[in-house]
Amino acid sequence: MRENQRHTSRVSVLGLGRMGAPIARTLLAQGHHVTVWNRTPERAEPLVRDGARVAGTVAEAVSDGELVLVTLLDHEAARDTLARAGERLRDRVVVNLTTSTPQQARELAGQVAGHGAQYLDGAMLGLPETVGTTEAFFLYSGDAEAFARHHAVLELLAPAHHLGTDPGLAEFEDLALLGGGYATLAGFVHSAALLASVGRRASEFVPLLSRWLTGLLAFLPELAREIDAGAYADGASTVAMNRTAVAGLVEVSRAQGVPPGPHAALLDLLTRREAEGHGGDSFASVVEPLRRPGPPVG
Ligand SMILES: NC(=O)c1ccc[n+]([C@@H]2O[C@H](COP(=O)([O-])OP(=O)(O)OC[C@H]3O[C@@H](n4cnc5c(N)ncnc54)[C@H](OP(=O)(O)O)[C@@H]3O)[C@@H](O)[C@H]2O)c1
């Protein structure tokens, strides 16, 4: 934080679970006035020792903070908890860090705006132990002025990125990031099962997979440029070549008694693109049928 931005904020933290507690602790360590509320009040006790004030009710907590951080289990908990603050929300900035769907984020934005508060939706990409470090990053969307005003405080929790004024955007981006990660994990467990079928241990395989994935990461910007331009003619790695490779992976998996899982869906896409005359296009062109869904290729 730059020296001229240093000032003390009044922050209320609703929810002191695995993420909420380190969030409150990080803000206390930086000298901010922190009021905490938790459904189970005993969970606030360690934070009192760190200097937090405990509010007996949600309304009291919201009254204390210009910035209200909500870190609850799910959308329903966040919605119902904020509903209990009612008119005390007026002139507050509510930052909802609870994992939600984009539509739930938009609904909550409307709910708090109805009480005169500004709304930011947040998605926390990180684990509890990475809160307050640059290992995590948090995504935000919603009121841009509120984000600018509280940017310095939000940046203490994790590098903070504002994606746009639609409150649902942070949740979309969160889902897309999770999707990329889960697809990698699904591929990893499939590979581990395939190698186990020939007596190889997953831990022996990880160093080579790491090298391979590092190369793939370097390839992503090129694929992204092709997808954004919708132009696939100059790709280094074609649909036809990849269809052959993935077909082999599916065939060998089945022969080894390992369900081909995530790769069967990719093979469908590649087969469809080739059948439609795009075998010479770049791999990235398999995004096209996803953008314009049609019947599966049989
Ligand atoms: N943990 C992670 O690694 C991680 C990472 C990124 C994002 N997230 C997201 O962060 C959010 C919080 O996760 P967490 O790991 O901190 O969860 P957690 O440890 O299970 O804590 C849940 C919190 O929500 C409160 N709560 C649950 N139901 C409630 C209700 N009906 N009314 C009021 N309060 C309620 C709990 O209060 P009590 O103490 O009374 O039970 C507790 O404060 C979730 O949306 C999660 O998806 C978590």
UniProtKB/TrEMBL annotation:
One Pfam family hit: RedAm-like_C
Residue ranges constituting the 6-phosphogluconate dehydrogenase NADP-binding domain according to the UniProt record: 11-158
Domain NADPH-dependent reductive aminase-like C-terminal: 166-292
Record bears the keyword Membrane: no
Gene source species: Streptomyces boluensis
GO molecular function: NADP binding; oxidoreductase activity
Top-level division of the source organism's lineage: Bacteria
Keywords linked to the UniProt accession: Oxidoreductase
Family that this chain belongs to: Belongs to the HIBADH-related family.
Stored InterPro entries: 6PGD_dom2 (IPR013328), 6PGDH_NADP-bd (IPR006115), HIBADH-related (IPR015815), HIBADH-related_NP60_sf (IPR051265), NAD(P)-bd_dom_sf (IPR036291), RedAm-like_C (IPR048666)
Protein name: NAD(P)-binding domain-containing protein
PANTHER family tied to this protein: CYTOKINE-LIKE NUCLEAR FACTOR N-PAC (PTHR43580:SF2), OXIDOREDUCTASE GLYR1-RELATED (PTHR43580)
